[in-house]
Amino acid sequence: MAASEHIVGRGIGNKLILFSVILVAIMWMLPIAWTLLLSFKPNSELMISTASAFHPPYTIKNYTDIFQSSGVFRWLWNSAVVSIGVTVGILVLSSLAGYGFARAEFKGRDIIFVLVLLGLAVPEQAVIIARHQMFSDLKMHNTYPAIILPGLSSAFGVFLMTQYFKAIPKDIDEAAMLDNASRFKIFWKVLLPLTIPAQATLGIFSFLGAWNDYLWPLISATKPEMFTITVGMASTQTNFAQSEGLGFLMAQAIFAGLPVFIVYLFFQKYIVRAVAGAAIN
User: Fold this and answer.
1) What is d(CA 152, CA 228) in angstroms, rounded to the nearest whole number?
2) In what way does this protein cross or attach to the membrane (predicted)?
3) Which has the least CB within 10 A, 79, 165, 177, 240?
C-alpha cells in the first residue's frame, strides 16, 4: 500500500515538474512568437494598432526591404568572419590554457588561475576606453583583427576547459606516456577528443556572444563596409523607426538572430551532453 502511494505521489510530482517546464517554455517563446508575427505585418497596419497582428493582411515586404540595403550581405559576411574568428580563437586558447592548468605543474599556477578567473568580474565597459585608445594608437580600427582580438580573452572558456581536463583520469596520460607519446600528442590525440562536448558548448556561447556583440564593433568599425550585422541594421533605423516601421524592426531582429538559431540546431546535442556530464560529475 505504501509502495503504491509512493509511486502515485512520484507520478504526480513528475507531472507537476513537466507542467512547470512546459509553462516556462511557453513564457520564453511568447516574445519570439510575437516578434515573428509582427515581422509579417504591414507597417501601416501596426501604426494603427499592434492588435492587428492577429488577423490579415500579412506581407513579406519587411524582409524584402532588408535586402534592399546594399550593405546587408557585406554585414553578414563581416559578422560571420568575426564570429568564426572569435570562436576558433577562444577554443584554441581555452583548450591550451585549460590543459596547462589541469595537467602541468609550474610555480604560481594556482595564483595565475585565480587571476584569470578575476576576469569574470571585470565588465567590458570598464576597459572599453583603454582598449579603444590602444587599437587607435596601433591604427587597427576598421579591421577584422581589431574586432576579433578583444573577444579572444575568455575567462569562462579557460575555467570550463580546465574543469573538463581535470575530470579526465590521469591514468589515460600515464598509459599514453608508456607508449612514448609526447605531451602535445597526448593533448591533441588523446585528451582533446574527450572534451568535444565542452568545446561544442563553449563554441556555441562564443559564437552567440560574438554575433550579437554591438558595443565594441560600434566603436571599432566606423566605416559602413566594416559594420557587423548588428551595427549595420542599427544604422538603418531612423529616430522614429519604432513608430514608422515596427514590422521592419521585428524583421531585422528575426533576420539577425536566424543564423545563431541554425547553428544551435546543429550543435544542440553536444550542449545536452555537456550539461548531462556536468550534472553527473
Assistant:
1) 17
2) Multi-pass membrane protein
3) 240
